Queue: 4 jobs
Job 1
Amino acid sequence: MAKKKEMEGEVFYPSEQVVEQARVKDWEAMAEKADKDLEGFWSAEASELEWYKKWDKVLDDSKKPFFKWFTGAKVNIVHNAIDRHLKTYRKNKLALIWESEDGKEHLTYSYFAMNREVSRMANIIKAMGVRKGDRVTIYMGRIPEIVFAMLACAKIGAVHSVVFGGFSAEALHGRIEDSQSKLVITQDGNYVNGKIVDLKRTVDEALKRCPSVENVLVVRRTGQDTPMDPLRDHWYHELAKLPVANGKCPTEEMDAEDPLYILYTSGSTGKPKAILHVHGGYMVGTYTTLKYVFDLKDEDRFWCAADPGWVTGHSYIVYGPLLNGATSFMFEGGPAYPYPNRWWQCVERYGINILYTAPTAIRGLMRFGEAWPNKHDLSSLRLLGSVGEPINPEAWKWYHRVIGKEQCPIMDTWWQTETGMFMITPTPTVPLKPGSGTRPFFGQQAEIVDEAGNPVKDGDEGYLVLKRPWPSMLRTIYGDPDRYVNQYWSKFPGKYLAGDSARRDADGYYWIIGRVDDVINVSGHRLGTAEIESALVSHPAVAEAAAIGLPHEVKGTGIHAFCLLRAGFAPSESLAEELRQHVAKVISPIARPEDVKFVDKLPKTRSGKIMRRVLKARAQGLPEGDVSTLEE
Ligand code: PRX
């Protein structure tokens, strides 16, 4: 690889072939242009898409931090994700390829077929009384119908709220209740590592106390025995046969600032936050970032191996690829079931060009050795991606060498549910340093600041803040605008507080260190310590609890819990196990603690706040730092 500019640390430069193929050859020039004229940059990008009516203003910051983008414009994201392609050769191009967990089923949908399926689903939910602005909760696994369901909502102007299929009845209940959804779309069961997860029964459990829900639409996937309430529950395949469920449905004209979806994410307090995204800006942000960062070409097959239940799946399985007219691949299963070559089989079978996944998956697959990927022809791959947590250089290099055969640059994309799109990320020609997401995306500026909000010097750790608005930024926390202002815009007025600590090196490259709030990142999933602690305390044996994150070989961070028992309960191995299961049941198996320890006392400040930092230091045998606020 040709070396260009002297840079600090270990640097991987793009090959000539990568540069030759790249859409953005001169990153610096493009970044400078966008930096000088932010609105001009985004307005040019937005103009590549179709609008029923163009905007009066690109960015309206008159009521900041309630920023608005493309005000006055009329659009629908589905018009650009599907409708506009039907007028071109893309009508017969594949929009979605799907493979079942067991590899026995393969389904493909052209843009034409996608339009038919989405319209069918849209007509059904319309017939159930769902109207523009109504919320619909979607609780499903990775099957094509989850994509249809999301797009069907957007098409008629309803607001989808996808809840990850691994969440418990209680977590689902809280999210349905908070969003006041009218309809829940689910499936009978979901295949996970050869077993069936009973999604519909979990919905039944969650709905025991959700009066807002009028109907439940159930997609048949596993075919197992499923209880159906004759008044409330409806099989999708039965309704799909009715004349009303035809494949034609007009796309609703929306204001650019009308809500598209809400997605819950963990914050530092107990209740998950409902992040709100809108049709216009989110569309422009996801379209543009995917186009430049993964250099999407018309003939590409793009595989984002996340779950549609998280923002990564929303932006880069569903919306981003379709907005770009690409072919998105979705796999029902996980990377290692039944064997650790499952993903590589898919890459080979479908000729995947771009693979975008999380460090935890890479680390998990690394453990099985190189022989598994080496059995497959992975030469179709052109680019790789990483998201969700910092990627450790060892995993980066393995991914680069064993999967990418040293030919595929790795796009390490830092972003959040709140940002909707990649924020700190390279594009393919940018020299890479393993573990760094390089620099802010075009038009964005980041900064590392100290407690007082002053920029720290390069190399020092501090709070990561974003200095300029971007089109796909969250608009608010649904139903709680004050929390939106307090959470993101109050600590350093005028700057967006990401909640991560980071540092910047002498080359201007950003290195994310981790969350600074009480959020634990387990395998790229955000979990609040408060959520875990309140799950523990909901068990009759537990009086008080604290949860911390400690390094974990595969998950990045594992959860460790400390519990103070109520009188009458004695510590035991079996109680510890019971508590681990209890958290899995109350929140989700991803929240299951690695271990539960029993303590007589938790370190607290004099005002009664648990000092998790002290627990963490003690658990790792590290110095406890400043303990002046620790109560006696
Ligand atoms: O801590 C950062 C980490 O994940 C957080 C956002 O989580 P969530 O909203 O669930 O979205 C995950 C997928 C976009 C961030 O605050 N994070 C995400 N991507 C990276 C990352 N940390 C380091 N490097 C990344 N590439």
Job 2
Amino acid sequence: MNAVGDFSDAEIEAGRRLFAGDWTFLSAASSIASLPRAGGLEVAFAGRSNVGKSSLINALTGRRALARTSNTPGRTQELIFFGGPDRLVLVDLPGYGYAAAAKSKVTAWTRLIHDYLHGRSALARVYLLIDARHGLKTADEAILDTLGRAAVSHEIVLTKCDQVSEAELAERSESVTAAMRKRPAAFPDLIATSARTGAGIAQLRAAIGRLLHERA
Ligand code: GDP
């Protein structure tokens, strides 16, 4: 059987087909009261501001501007829901770790994320995006703690892998994997991506396709 990373050719193809479908903006929620009713399966993306989250969502869905990319970190304080084929919903969680954000904003952010992560049975996985150049930071550890406490399945996705050498990427992957092994709700595997070159995008699509398949 042929394979790409951990995925068979059939899974890579299924992932490609899944994301080649239509993707649309469903809704935005800035409070727990405005969360949409959970329909299908949700897969959420979290990460520090500027980690490349919007770019990754756009690369996954093959859309140039489904998620709004921005050079203004900390701007979006909303959960954004995108609907795709097979009732798959991608959830763009607001970025965190923006140093200049007011304390009240940080508190509001923490509460919203916390409320969303707890008791959202449609949520199959959170992908936590980590910049391949920087590795895990304190703010990432805090959300990892929250994910662990909520017992939400989660996995690391490295972003901007085009910005590091192969040796650096291997080293970073190893240290992040070692840190994740200590967290029981976390998948120790990670997926290395670049929205710029497209590296790892097929694997991430296949991983999400596999989740959908497992939950079907
Ligand atoms: P967000 O704040 O997490 O949504 O991040 P964005 O997607 O808006 O990206 C932040 C910045 O990183 C932008 O200048 C992007 O062009 C850049 N960026 C995003 N993904 C990549 C990538 O894979 N490679 C490189 N080199 N730059 C990227």
Job 3
Amino acid sequence: MSPAMSQREDDPILECRFQKGVKHLCESGITSLPSRYILPVSERPNLRGGGMNVSDLNFKLPIIDFAQLQGPQRPQVLNKLSKACEEYGFFQVTNHGIPGDVIQSMIDVSKRFFDLPFEERSKYMSTDMRAPVRYGTSFNQKKDGVFCWRDFLKLVCHPPSDVLPYWPTSPADLREAAVTYSQQAKFLYMKLVEAVLESLGLLVGTTMHADEENADNAALKEFEDGSQLMVVNCYPSCPQPDLTLGMPPHSDYGFLTLLLQDEVEGLQIQNCQGKWLNVEPLPNSLVVNVGDHLEIFSNGRYKSVLHRVLVNSSKSRISVASLHSFPFDRVVRPSPKLVNEANPRRYKDTDFATFLAYVSSCEPKRKNFLESRKLP
Ligand code: OGA
Ligand code: NI
């Protein structure tokens, strides 16, 4: 039995406290990190003296100017986009067109949600992976041996008429702010999908015959009907940030993730040499990353990259991840147009049910799920 397991079973009172989340733990007043949150030395964020945990401070994520993408510079920007997806699996989008007040309201209402009394927040606690709204802590609070320093609110966004009645009723403006933001994020996502498909050579483009246009529209329609999940992450300030993580290394399930963050840094991505790179928050921008489904769909050309979140001792941090993909029941496989003799199929078929079965059955570590879909 692992030390974490024995601790869990030995001390039900402590365990019950940890299950209530880190915000609650902080409110009860702690000055040091409980052992449940302490990572083994090799997994801690700031290991000095070499190895995989040294970060590169001079790194800047590629920037995609969305306004330019929609203009005459589109071919050059598509090139940049495709390089970013191949090399980093991540880019920042500026001039994305989502109004500043929509973004501000989303961040603002998220902060106020986590400031509500625990009793109010806990109404939405659920361990049902398919619940339309789910408040929780850590990564997988029923399975994680070591807990991470994060609380979250997950909001399923699609189809809106089915899910909205379950969303929190307080703060009173949460639903309105979150619906508005989620619609704007979906609109941007669709434009980015169009760009991604075009960059992979899968859309014929704007000057084409009617039948080609119909094929393109059908391809995009499937994305329009796809799934959307918003995860509001709250990382309270932490008494010993060098011993824990806000989120462990993981890749995102899905096609693309659009990440909105406040001005506090914390996100790191892993480069191909295994080095952790800080993503500096750029005001008014969104971070976009390739998810497992896009890696599979592109037959491995675009990379779903490991990322993690550091916490800090002075500031709490809020982020809102909007995760988009195909409809839940759709089988995900490499696009047939990207598979040929020179570039054989590299992934098995997968679907959402397979993923749920996978995450429910094990402690989700790194990108195991994607690894499990690779063909030998
Ligand atoms: C996520 C994620 C990063 C962050 O929600 O999947 O990676 O900065 N979030 O909160
Ligand atoms: Ni992520």
Job 4
Amino acid sequence: MTEKASTVEKLVSTCQNTDLKRIGEKVLNRQRLSFDEGVFLFEEASLSYAGALANWVREQLHGDKTYFNRNFHIEPTNICVFSCNFCSYSRLYAHREEGWELSSKEMVDIVKKYDGQPVTEVHIVGGVHPKMDLNFFINVIKEIKSHRPGLHVKGFTPVELDYMFRKAKVSTEEGLKRMQAAGLQSLPGGGAEIFHPQVRQQICDDKVDAEGWLHIHKTAHAIGMQTNATMLYGHIEKFWHRIDHMERLRQLQDETGGFNTFIPLKFRNGDNAMSNVPESSVVEDMRMYAIARLYLDNFPHLKAYWPMLGRQNAQLALSFGVNDIDGTIDDTTKIYSMAGSEEQKPTMSTKELVNLIKQVKREPVERDTLYNVIKNYNLVNTEEQEIDAHLN
Ligand code: V47
Ligand code: SF4
């Protein structure tokens, strides 16, 4: 028995709350938690108890390995036909003079800025612009891939895809296959928010619903695309809505195995129609990560997205179940800075990411989008790290 295992076993065996003790024993036996047990953890578990269990699971799955990648975003537009109340970023089409819309040339020019740099992924996501249709994006993807075939294109949420496919009058499968043929390789996790209609109707009434979101991801998995999943937490939802959300994801993952990473997204209340809703505390954020790690037993990875959470809290999350910290970003996303995140110009060099991970005694591993290892920074010498750091 390792020292860490014996510590967590002692914590569970001496737990005075019999229900929490039983849940702890189930975790240590790698048994699945029920819906009610998930809710109970949110209601009753201290951060130290849930956190220690989640950290144990994380170390069983990944040891100290902590993944990051070298990536940048393209946000084609912030003009959007939808009006989610939590969104600080979008502008309605009627007010489009206040927003931005990139041409396909401008998007390819962003990609060209990274010529000669070892970035491996472009993440494309934005508002739903009525004139940026399926053919427009197929063309953008083709141009990006023809300029840089090795760059992984991860892009488009079911919100964007559902709108594009309906407008083009194609089925989800047909639409996704066309995008895949153009070079789209995986889907990010956005647009999920909270699946339950009680909450969804209050925060994002007019966009794709839970069934539509899950259908698009299921179809992507069926044609061989891996995807991520998010959950926007810490606003008006109750704990059981969070478990309901994760339950639906867990069920789909049982069916397809196509999800890579779960990313809880902390609601930020800057300058949006929900600014009166207070933000969650850091303790609640860490409990969220820990309980996600415990509940989603079939998701390989749990990510703390540092531009949203702030780099210090993302670093802290590495002790509460998280094993991925996203990437370099290079100040290419505005979604969170416009919502009031402390990261007003989100950019981290590889060196900074490596240091952030090493400071909490974890093992920095650069990955590609699909978690193939590019470099383990515990295994390379300092000189090599210095060379790398200058590249990005
Ligand atoms: O769906 C919008 C969220 C998401 C706010 O897959 C907000 O690797 C908090 O999904 N407060 C888009 N969150 C971003 C996204 C994402 C980000 C990073 C990595 C990946 C991945 C996916 O941003 C939206 C919405 O849930 N969001 N406004 C806000 N005020
Ligand atoms: Fe549009 Fe997305 Fe903002 Fe909703 S979250 S208003 S779909 S950009």
